[in-house]
Amino acid sequence: MTERTASLKFSDGSPAVTFPVLSGSVGPQVIDIRSLYGKTGKFTYDPGFLSTASCSSAITYIDGDKGELLYRGYPIEELATRCDFLETCHLLLYGDLPTPAQKEAFVPSVMRHTMVHEQMQFFLRGFRRDAHPMAILTGLVGALSAFYPDSINLHDARQREISAIRLIAKMPTLVAMSYKYSVGQPYIYPQNELSYAGNFMRMMFATPCGPYEVNEVLVRALDRFFILHADHEQNASTSTVRMCASSGTNPFAAIAAGVACLWGPAHGGANEAALNMLYEIQAEGGAAKIGEFIAKVKDKSSNVKLMGFGHRVYKNYDPRAKLMRETCYEVLNELGLHDDPLFKLAMALEKIALEDDYFVQRKLYPNVDFYSGIVQRAIGIPVQLFTAIFALARTVGWIAQLNEMVADPEYKIGRPRQLYTGSPRRSVVPLAQRA
Ligand code: SDX
Predict the structure, then answer these.
(1) Torsion-angle region of residue 67: left (phi > 0), alpha (psi -120 to 50) or beta?
(2) 311 in active site
C-alpha cells in the first residue's frame, strides 16, 4: 500500500518538508512529525494538546462525535451490564476478558492483597481530621513505594505486575481508611471473601459494634461505577502518569501523580463540584432558580461553569453519563428515594441545558461526573470522597497505560519544547547600579 504523506510548505521560501501519515485500527490518522525539528528547526505549537496524539495505544478508544467508548474494543455499555470490575481490570491489564479459569485465579490474586502495612495508619494521624481525602490519598499512594521495595523497578515486568495488583487491591482500603479517619471511627479490615465492591462498602460503612449487611443492589451500582471510570484514553491524569513514569520512577509514585492531577475540578474533581453546584441551586430555591443559574453560566465574567457538563472529546452525550443516570434510578428506587429532590433538580437542569442554544452550539452535554455524585451521595458517600473513589476506579487504567508505555519500543522520557516569549539575552547589572 503506498505510504500516505503530508507536506508542509513555508511562505518564507524554506524548503517544503514531507511527513508520513499513520493510520490506527479506527479513528483519526496522525501526521508523524517526529523529524520536524531536525528537518526545519521549528516546533509544533499545541497548548492543551487539542490536536496532538501523545502516543499510540491499544487500550481505550473514544469516538467523541458518536459518543462511543471502547475498552480493548468492547463497548462500555456491554462491559457495564455484562461484566464486573475485576473482569474489566483483567481486560485492561492483559488485553482480554478472563476465561472462567483465568477469573478464578485473578480475583483471589487481587483480593488477598487488600490489607495495607500496619504502619500506614500512622500516616493518617499526621493529617487533621478534616483533611481533604485527596490530600491524604496522594500522600498514602506515594508512600506505598516505601513499603514495597520488591516491586518498584519500573523496567521489570514482574515487579510492575506485582505493584499493579497491590495498587488495585489496596486503593479501596486506603480510600476507606481516609473516610474512617475523617469521621473518627476505627478502620475496618478487608474481608477477602467479599466481592471487590462489597468489601469496599463494608470497609466504608461497617463498625466493630455489629454485623454489616452488604446491599447487593448498591454493591452492583458501585461496581458499575468503577467500570465506567476505569480508563479513558489520554486524559489529563493518565497523561500525567505516563509523563511521570517516563522518567523511570516507580509505579507507586507515578500513580500518586495521577491522583494529584485527577483532584482538579476541571477533571476528576468535577463530580464533587457538580454536586455542590446542585446543592447551591437547591439552597437558592431549586428548579425555580435554574434559569438564573444558567444566565450566570452564560455570563463569562461570572467564571461559573455548569459542572458535570462539557468534555474535550465528547461532542455528543458521554455514554457513561447515560449509564450513570440509569444507575441513579436503580439506586434511588432501591433506597426509596425516587423523589430525591436533587436528582429531580439534576434532570431539570440537564433538560434545560440540552435545549439551550448556548450549550447546544458549544456541544456541551452531561459527562460522567454529572450524575455520579447523586449515586454516591445516595449510597452514603460524603461529597469530599467522590474524587478519591474516582481515583480508586481509575488506578487500573493508569497502570495499564503505564505498562503499555514502558513496553513500547518507541518510549522515551517526555520532554516537550516551547515557544519562548521572554527577554532576549541580557547582562546582569551590579546591584549598586540597578535603578
Ligand atoms: C473528566 O479527558 C477526559 O477524558 C476526562 C474524563 C475522564 O474520564 O478522564 O472524562 C473525566 O474530567 C470529565 C470532565 C469533567 N469536568 C467538568 O465537568 C468541568 C466542567 N467542564 C469544563 O471545565 C470543560 O468542559 C472541560 C474542561 C471538561 C473541557 O474543556 P475544553 O475542551 O478545554 O473546552 P473549552 O474550555 O475550550 O470550552 C469550549 C467552550 C468555551 O466557551 P467559548 O470560549 O467557546 O465561548 O465551551 C465553554 C467554554 O467556556 N464551556 C463551558 C463548559 N465547558 C466548556 N461553559 C459552561 N460550562 C461548562 N461546563
Answers:
(1) left
(2) yes
Distance of alpha carbon 247 from alpha carbon 413, whole angstroms: 5
Could you identify the atom of ligand 1 that is nearest to the CA of residue 235?
2
Q: In this structure, what C-alpha cell is assigned to residue 69?
A: 467508548
Nearest CA residue ID for atom 45, ligand 1: 362
CB atoms within 10 A of CB 167: 23
- pLDDT score of 410: 86
pTM of the model: 0.95
**Ligand 1 atom, smallest distance to 238 CA:** 9
Which is catalytic among the residues 223, 231, 318, 369?
369
Judge whether 307 and 281 are in contact, CB under 8 Å.
Answer: no
SS3 content of the chain, % helix, strand, coil (to 5): 55, 5, 40
Q: What is the mean pLDDT of each run of 10 residues along the chain (435 residues)?
A: 87 95 97 96 97 97 96 98 98 98 98 97 95 97 95 94 97 98 97 97 97 94 97 98 97 98 94 93 93 93 93 91 91 90 91 91 91 91 96 98 95 95 97 95
356 is catalytic: no
Q: Which of 60, 242, 267, 298 to mutate to test the pocket of ligand 1 (most atoms within 8 A of CB)?
A: 267
Write out residues with Cβ below 6 Å of ligand 1: 232, 235, 266-268, 270, 297, 305-312, 362, 364, 367-369
Supply the pLDDT for residue 1: 55
Q: Are 310 and 297 in contact (CB under 8 A)?
A: no
pLDDT confidence of residue 86: 98
Take atom 47 of ligand 1 and give the residue whose Cα is closest: 362
Residue 48 confidence (pLDDT): 94
Given this model, what pLDDT does residue 379 score?
A: 92
SS (H, E, C) 205-260: HCCCCCCCCCCHHHHHHHHHHHHHCCCCCCCHHHHHHHHHHCCCCCHHHHHHHHHH
CA 67 to chain centre: 18
